[in-house]
Amino acid sequence: MSIEVVSLAIPDVKIIKARKIGDHRGFFSETYNKKAFAEAGIDLDFVQDNHSYSSEVGTVRGLHYQAAPHAQNKLVRVLKGRILDVAVDIRRSSPTFGQWVAAEISAAEWNQILVPVGFAHGVVTLEPDTELLYKVTDYYAPSHDFGIRWNDPALGIDWPVSADAARLSAKDLAQPLFSEAVGLFE
């Protein structure tokens, strides 16, 4: 398996592109191979796969994170559609604490994003009927599940959807501001 790994402006967040082999029947792609990822410097033990579907453009999920000792690295890819994926650095000792990076992830581009431990994570759908599949390195732990308000002005995230048009869960609408967030990383 050959993969291409590119760091974003916050270098711990990475875009990964797997090789895709096509012919008259369709295509084949090995989207995850532990050995190939380790050779690229990404040596993680994934324990759970999550699959989400969003029917409408402008569906926002996040900003979510799990606190220690159940923090999660996430490897996110889009099976159908297109998203803007956002990662916010919530590591207090980091020089990029409170800063964010974003990347468009899509089925057409066949790219993935690695969102490491210490980041709040969110997505917004850019196409209808979008499906995501993401691997995580720890199991879901409700007692360690936290979030930050997706459109907190202090973060200044450039979301491609207005607050009026965004489709959010009741849970995400009630998330605290960044200044009030708990479970941040030391």
From TrEMBL:
It catalyses: dTDP-4-dehydro-6-deoxy-alpha-D-glucose = dTDP-4-dehydro-beta-L-rhamnose. Its EC number is 5.1.3.13. The record marks 140 as: Participates in a stacking interaction with the thymidine ring of dTDP-4-oxo-6-deoxyglucose. GO terms for cellular component: cytosol. InterPro entries: RmlC-like (IPR000888), RmlC-like_jellyroll (IPR014710), RmlC_Cupin_sf (IPR011051). It comes from the Bacteria. GO terms for molecular function: dTDP-4-dehydrorhamnose 3,5-epimerase activity. Transmembrane segments: none annotated. SUPFAM superfamilies: RmlC-like cupins (SSF51182). The active site is at 64 (proton acceptor), 134 (proton donor). Belongs to the dTDP-4-dehydrorhamnose 3,5-epimerase family. Catalyzes the epimerization of the C3' and C5'positions of dTDP-6-deoxy-D-xylo-4-hexulose, forming dTDP-6-deoxy-L-lyxo-4-hexulose. Homodimer. This is dTDP-4-dehydrorhamnose 3,5-epimerase.
